[in-house]
Design goal:
Helix content: 25-40%
Number of helices: 4
Strand content: 25-35%
Distance between the termini: 8 Å
Strand order of the largest sheet: 3-4-5-6-7-9-8
Shape: globular
Structural class: alpha+beta
Length: 185
């Protein structure tokens, strides 16, 4: 997928950690361990390496490294059967996008919106492959994080209301259906 940002255009790819062999996974996890989170983000996201390791151990989670132009620029996890963790009405109708972050060194270049849109496409493929009934992707984003809310809106996610279940305070539940097309180019 193509990204337009302040530094021109680029591409992002989602690399599934579960589909790599042990050596490939170790290389990717080494890069994830080097990722940085800004001080302002620490209230909203966890440690990238820990999130990926937890995702590898849980059958319902699919952890991904986000790559752009040969660099590992972020991480995200897709999870089935857990949409209510984002304030969604049920667990079966949507994939949960969680543990999403772009390394502080790569923020502001359009990669977040592009990766979020790519996550929706990947979730659609997983739903087809696994025979799930999901029709889109849901996430929750802290109300004190307007930059992330904008990233998700730019990727076609629609605000679906307030959710008070977040550990860092009130959240906005955002949803994007699989058939929603967004032109990020």
């Amino acid at each position: 997928m193509k990204a337009d940002g302040h530094n021109g255009s680029g591409y992002v790819w989602l690399i599934s950690l579960k589909q790599l062999d042990d050596d490939g996974r170790a290389i990717q996890l080494g890069e994830v361990a080097r990722m940085g989170v800004s001080a302002g983000q620490r209230d909203f996201v966890g440690d990238p390496l820990r999130m990926m390791l937890v995702g590898l151990e849980d059958d319902s989670r699919f952890p991904y490294v986000i790559e752009s132009e040969g660099a590992q620029v972020g991480v995200l996890t897709l999870q089935y059967g857990a949409a209510s963790l984002a304030g969604w009405a049920d667990d079966a109708s949507a994939w949960l996008l969680r543990g999403f972050l772009i390394d502080v060194a790569y923020q502001g270049r359009g990669m977040g919106s592009l990766a979020a849109a790519a996550a929706v496409d990947e979730a659609r493929k997983l739903a087809l492959r696994l025979g799930g009934a999901e029709s889109g992707v849901v996430l929750s984003v802290n109300e004190r994080n307007p930059a992330a809310q904008k990233v998700y809106a730019n990727a076609g996610f629609v605000d679906s209301g307030r959710y008070l279940g977040g550990s860092s305070g009130p959240q906005r539940t955002m949803y994007r259906a699989f058939d929603s097309a967004v032109n990020l180019c």
